[in-house]
């Protein structure tokens, strides 16, 4: 069954979130919701998440799932907030424990944080299927950007996280802890083996060309036009290109707060005795 897909764009992080629904059965899922965060003041806001909630309520949907494509490094996840407001099970790829273990060490998190994925309601394995009403969702492990990246295939649509961007922008970076350009190459080939007319739904748009559909590409367009991995670019060339490109990139503005929150399914830290919540800033560690 084809899903009804509604995109939402967060301008501050250039992130697309989606509400995917079976409009007949009135079942829905949210993919990659964003919690607003001002890194200058440390203030969070829920305006983007509230838009998703309002859409769910306006269309009288039951929210079954809150799906993360990976542990994001450029925005805080609103998954925990949305779950508290209207329910839904938070799911992510089963390899999230690998990401958690890496960053538990970096942020020197105490023994109360168990790095086995238990913070999420469902850990999804490769080729696992589940339902959104009558919509069958099939998972594809697509590591490389992070070890836990996962894509969600629904009929002729697939939500690919950061694995690929619009063809003029290329592919995901691989220089975060656990990133691997060779793995990313093979993950992308897996996506590009889908039928040419398969619609690829982006997680980001950083915008370098005029287009009215910056959140959708296709397998065919990627094979023909992606500047990093189009037809004719082999594995060795891609890895060389990706490493060169990654050396030129600055760290995302929100990597430090984002990862600390997102490895905990979007849950903010507990308040200290003074009633204030805190995040850690590791010095001379990233970049």
Provide structural commentary:
The chain has 287 residues and is α/β, with parallel strands linked by helices. The protein has one domain: Ribonuclease Z/Hydroxyacylglutathione hydrolase-like (Metallo-beta-lactamase, Chain A, 4-Layer Sandwich). It is 25% helix and 24% strand. The chain has seven helices and 15 strands. It has helices at 47-58, 79-86, 96-106, 181-192, 219-225, 235-247, 255-262; strands spanning 4-10, 15-22, 27-31, 34-38, 43-45, 62-67, 76-77, 89-93, 122-124, 129-132, 135-141, 150-154, 157-159, 199-201, 216-218. The strands form three sheets. A six-stranded mixed β-sheet has the order 1-2-3-6-8-9, with helices on one face. Helix 4 (181-192) crosses helix 6. The longest helix is centred in the last third of the chain and has 13 residues, at 235-247. The protein is globular.
The main pleated sheet reads as: 6 strands, mixed
Q: What gyration radius follows from the Cα positions, in whole Å?
A: 18 Å
Query: Might you state the CATH topology name?
Result: Metallo-beta-lactamase, Chain A
Question: What coarse outline follows from CA principal-axis ratios?
Answer: globular
CATH homolog superfamily: Ribonuclease Z/Hydroxyacylglutathione hydrolase-like
The helix/strand order is EEEEEHEEHEHEEEEEHEEHHH
- Uncertain stretches: none
Query: According to CATH, what is the class?
Result: Alpha Beta
Number of domains: 1
Strand order of the largest sheet: 1-2-3-6-8-9
Derived from helix and strand composition plus strand pairing, the structural class reads alpha/beta
Mean pLDDT value: 95
End-to-end CA span: 44 Å
The number of helices is 7
Question: What amount of the residues lies in strands?
Answer: 15-25%
- What's the number of extended β-strand segments? 15
CATH architecture: 4-Layer Sandwich
